[in-house]
Design brief:
Helix content: 40-55%
Largest sheet: 2 strands, parallel
Order of helices and strands: HHEHHEHHHH
Number of strands: 2
CATH superfamily: P-loop containing nucleotide triphosphate hydrolases
Number of domains: 1
Shape: globular
Oligomer: single chain
Length: 188
């Protein structure tokens, strides 16, 4: 299955009113919102992680946002369909689990104190709290205005793309039985 990687593939806009999006006085944090793309690059070339450590001066921290896997997989299928790639839900599940396996592998090579992991759905419920913890994890002290402005653009509820795809019980159970450590929050 071929999936297209495109920088502007979502309708989400990350411009935060009254803040510094795209501008800075002193660069403190760099990052990329496309976890899939970074994961694919590390999956293909695991040595990139050690190369990154040699290239970046300072501490490298990882942010791992965990979403409901049914939503992630459904979105993968919807994107493939949008690009006329004739998606198959079972293949999308296999692809997703290959990404999860890569994340699990990466986490074995990173100190747990250098990973900030949280549920997307929890973030939406309490964006200011999570943003504050995230900033502190990155060594940046956020102002109250920053937290308020950022929280103002967060959707009030997550998009549940799992309802846009027809899931049969066998495939639901395939995901549920996937044994991915960071799914622990979902199936308690």
């Amino acid at each position: 299955m071929v999936l297209l990687y495109c920088r502007y593939r979502s309708s989400y806009i990350y411009d935060v009113p009254n803040q510094w999006y795209g501008r800075f006085q002193k660069l403190q944090v760099i990052g990329d919102k496309h976890g899939e793309g970074a994961t694919l690059r590390l999956q293909k070339r695991p040595g990139l992680l050690s190369h990154l450590r040699k290239t970046i001066y300072g501490k490298i921290k990882f942010i791992h946002v965990v979403r409901n896997p049914y939503d992630n997989i459904s979105t993968i299928c919807k994107r493939a369909e949008k690009h006329d790639l004739n998606p198959d839900l079972k293949k999308c599940i296999e692809y997703y689990f290959s990404l999860c396996a890569t994340v699990v592998s990466i986490k074995k090579h990173v100190e747990s104190t250098d990973i900030f992991e949280f549920r997307h759905e929890s973030f939406i419920v309490e964006p200011k709290d999570y943003l504050k913890k995230l900033c502190q994890f990155l060594g940046v002290e956020p102002s109250e205005n920053y937290l308020n402005d950022c929280a103002s653009i967060v959707y009030k509820s997550p998009h549940k793309s799992r309802y846009d795809i027809a899931w049969d019980l066998e495939l639901i159970n395939t995901v549920k039985d996937g044994k991915v450590p960071f799914f622990k929050w979902l199936f308690l």
